[in-house]
Predict the 3D structure of the following.
Amino acid sequence: MSKKYHVLVLVAALSAAGLTGCATQVKRVGVEEVKDLSGAWNDTDSRLVSEEMIRDSLSGGWLKRHLKNSKNEPVVIVGSIRNLSHEHINTRTFVNDLERAFVNSGDVRVVASKNEREGLRGERLDMDTNVREETRKAMGQETGADYMLMGSINTIIDAAGREQVRFYQVDLTLVSLANNEKVWTGQKKLKKEVQNAKLRF
Amino acid sequence: MQNFGSDRRQPARAGGLFVGLLALVAVLGMQGCATHSEGFRSIEQQAAIRNIPGAIKALDQFHATDLAKTDETLKYLNRGMLLRLQADYSKSNTEFDTAKSLIDKLEAISVAEQAGSALINEGVKAYTGDANEQLLLYGFKALNYLQLNDFDAAAVEARQFDIKQRLITEKYPEAKFISGAFVRYLNGMIYEAVGEPDSARIEFTKALEGYQSQSKFTNCGAPSALRADLARVEGKTPSRSKSSKRSRSKADSTPDATAALAEANGEVVFFLHNGLGPSLAENLIQVPNPVPGQGTSLLRIALPKFVERPLPVMRFELSSGGQSTNSEVAEDVNGLAKKSLEARLPGIQTRALVRLVAKNKLTADAKKRSEQAAKQNTGDLASMLRMSMGTIMDITATLTERADTRSWSLLPGNIQLARLALPPGTHDLKVSYYGVNGNLLSTREFKGVRVDAARKTFLSDYYL
């Protein structure tokens, strides 16, 4: 009787554990919570890059120099951020963070990028025929950028067996559109050690 | 007395439970007795008649019975390939990505699968693809990106391939046939296209070495355009042998000539998935057991054997206006798969023999318990079951001995490549497929293909 009881308890426990595994579970977590699953580039890496780049770019000497030589705040356009890494990385996450920091600081103005402005120009073209005159926005009134933000992500991966060391280097540069001078360069390096599982069920 | 009798039956009960479990797993694993490759025929037939949605539907139905999910990787590999054939490159890469993640995850050893493969058959192990299949996965993903005009993403695949190939070489240092020469050649083109000539030079050099090292096992050497590419990135002029000059007709633009012309013009790089690739069949070796009472009635091992399927296209001609070029074989998928199986076969044979011994021992034990049960026969159902355990185990052990005939069978038998230099602009292209006897099989037209100066335009087709 006692043995049967133990077996029943064991079966019930195993069933409960099994059923728990069957259901999809969703848990809200803080965006700053670090959770590394595969070792690949993730939200934490993107956040670390944007934090570093925002701090560095807004405190850099280029801003002071620009304001010294010009009455207006610098205008920045986002150019090409090339992914030269081993992973398919979405660079828009930290670039958008940087854009937001520029705009919200009030010290740097940002104009729409090449891809974004196509849609804006299309909308203005549409306005020419479809909107009331007093609300229509004219063509040819765009703000020209002073600087273009460019950059790249590079990686070095050393792998042997189940171990990998992943090194990421993100470089961002502000280049003067007037004379191609690089006025600011930001860099963030990240290194991870990844050990893949030896055993699975 | 009652307690004593009850204790004596414990081992028999445990053995019976084990045998029952084995039979259940066997039934799940056998899936109607057809080998994997036999069950896959209807999918291949649908693909061959260019009914890709029908093939995908058949594929999903085929995998619906994979309750143990051991063929999950194969499902995504084949779905990815079918979507690629359908020119749905983005979705194809989503499927390939899933396959890649699964392969990485399945690198870890599963104790349950190892035990299962030692007692049942190798089909209970999750499929991870052989080394060449794994390398080709990166190539097809890169090709998808190239055909989506996303060269930077293709370069990411090229970089990942380099790590994968290095790890595979570490694992199989003697396997010269796992060079990934074709993917390296493709990667060279990718690096050149994204403005990384140094990486391109390294890839072209490694591709050339790879083609040379695997030429013993395959029906293809290094494509002539590869040498021209290497010479170009090294900043040299390609040297041409007298024989190659003689064989060049005026109408034909040979691959190395097109590569040189591509500097000033644009270039169309055309890939053909020719026929269907590696398929494995079951080779059953069985003899009656001289002592059937002390083991299985039949001593049986099942091994996979390579089945080469005929390739429909011997060559194709790519033309536009007055320009034309002939194809070359860039990857002999069949040749490499055959060599890979040959290399794996000794291990498969050893494991099959170990399994034979294990099954024989388990069956002998079950038969012994059945005999004991027969002596204590009480006439009830449980007693009858215990008496038949030996026979059940005998049948199960024999029927579960199946060869693992799984392979990424929607890979092409070979990949042919043609490169045609064309001036910038929009071009109508014609592809003429020729059979083994030189007869024209069919032609296909690709209208309005955009070619940009000093850039490559990647196209592909399939003929199954």
Residues 40-195 of chain A form a domain with the Rossmann fold fold (CATH 3.40.50). The CA atoms of residues 82 and 152 of chain A lie 4 Å apart. Chain A has five helices and six strands. The longest helix of chain A spans residues 2-22.
